[in-house]
């Protein structure tokens, strides 16, 4: 398998975590790219030039972090990251995490290309929503010792938020979630994919 990824993408980090949790990482050839530069190898595989993009052993090209994660869960069911009896809970967390990633990445990537990004009404709306989302996420997270797909996604989303928008400073208001992040962050799959 080949995984197009970047060192900071929270979406790519989620897929890298899932591959590590499932003991598949040594079967992966990671291809580190800057997707914004539209490198030829990535655009040949994915016309949207986005990471993560996974090329499977049979040459299928998969995109979208949540979809790749679900493909990995179906294809390599052990260890289980999406227990059937807790599917609703896991999907809920996955959705919250994806919302947080989308909001943060939209703000940061617009800042990269536009001087007026911080006055854009939609991005301002997303910025205002983040603290409320953190409050909801704090109530949703599961056991950091036995994380599921939703927990791994939340840890990846918050890791990116802290890297790029540390000014949000949510940790004092949500001390329990901060502790959860520390605990889950000790897992090798997350510790070895920490964005820098
Ligand atoms: N919806 C996609 C989003 C992936 C995404 O936006 N990745 C960013 C990096 S964090 C990227 O590759 N951006 C390059 C671009 O949009 O051209 C997913 O869930 O995987």
Q: Structural class of the secondary structure composition?
A: alpha+beta
- β-strand percent reads 5-15%
Q: Regarding quaternary structure, how should these chains be classified? A: single chain
Could you please say which CATH topology of the largest domain applies here?
Glutathione S-transferase Yfyf (Class Pi), Chain A, domain 2
Question: Radius of gyration in whole Å, from Cα?
Answer: 16 Å
Textual characterization of the structure:
The protein is α+β, with helices and mostly antiparallel strands. It has two domains: 74 residues, Glutaredoxin, CATH 3.40.30.10; 108 residues, Up-down Bundle (Glutathione S-transferase Yfyf (Class Pi), Chain A, domain 2). It has a four-stranded mixed β-sheet, covered by helices on one side. Strand 1, helix 1 and strand 2 form a beta-alpha-beta unit. Helix 1 runs parallel beside helix 3. It is globular, with a radius of gyration of 16 Å. The two termini are 24 Å apart. The mean pLDDT is 98. The structure holds glutathione (GSH). Glutathione binds next to helix 3.
